[in-house]
Amino acid sequence: MHPMLNTAIKAARRGAAVISRASFDLDLLKVTKKQHNDFVTEVDQAAEAAIIDVLKNAYPDHAILAEESGASANLHDDNENVWIIDPLDGTTNFIHGFPQYCVSIALQHRGQITQAVVYDPTRNDLFTATKGSGAYLNDKRIRVGKRDKIADALIGTGFPFRETEGPVMDEYIKMFRVMTQNCAGLRRPGSAALDLAYLAAGRLDGFFEKGLKPWDIAAGSLLISESGGIIGDFTGESDYLYKGDVLAGSPKVFAQMVSLLSPYATK
């Protein structure tokens, strides 16, 4: 196993330990509202601090891009290595005791995601990938599903929880209608990073969402590509990590999703 992946796993487990301890006392959590339906807890912040501590101790010169603390001061100093971190993807689920959330950590080296960890502490599911070496769930090799028709596919998604009315929501309703009419089932579990990991493991056949952040996508994107899947934007292009519009699937399902959803690509 790559030493940087080992460090990422250690960091993910350290962050997850903070989350798991807090899950026993949800009534005591201090919850802050960033904006409508967008929450942050002291657990998000403590888990992120624990993760960064592990990474910085191992690689003090590496840059950080994290959901809660943002970018480190050296992010734009021609730094070759950037750790992209979501300490608790699925915060709303977490504060409700709904067991669908995870820690997501990725390493971006010279613009390419090269290491990935998505860890689900509620199920002890550890998804890992190193570029060129395959994707794994608890040390067992994983592959995307073999379904080749979208009519048979189970598709994951998310919806714009910050904008519950207006043109953005109207567009999503149209996309939901299109996908519901064409696939076997549509699921919205509430953690994009975990949805992408599930796709890599064959638990979902496809995924789409708009308006995501790099920390939602980075680790899952490598899991998908290393498990034989394809990830891109709504037109199938590779400009998705910072654009935030993500469409992914097994190769044949991906192509059919692009055909259906490309009219909704961000202009």
The level 1 CATH classification of the largest domain is Alpha Beta
Envelope shape: globular
Mean pLDDT across the residues is 91
Helix fraction by DSSP (H/I, runs of at least 4)? 25-40%
Q: What is the CATH third-level topology name of the largest domain? A: Fructose-1,6-Bisphosphatase, Chain A, domain 1
What distance separates the N and C termini?
Answer: 41 Å
Number of helices: 7
Largest sheet: 8 strands, mixed
Spans with pLDDT under 50 lasting ≥5 residues? none
Q: Identify the CATH architecture of the largest domain.
A: 2-Layer Sandwich
The value of Rg in angstroms is 18 Å
Query: Can you tell me the number of structural domains?
Result: 2
Strand content: 25-35%
Strand order of the largest sheet: 4-3-5-6-7-8-9-10
Number of DSSP-assigned strands: 15
- Overall structural class, as computed from helix and strand content, comes to alpha+beta
Helix-strand sequence:
HEEHEEEHEEEEEEHEHEHEEH
- At the fourth level of CATH, the homologous superfamily of the largest domain is Fructose-1,6-Bisphosphatase, subunit A, domain 1
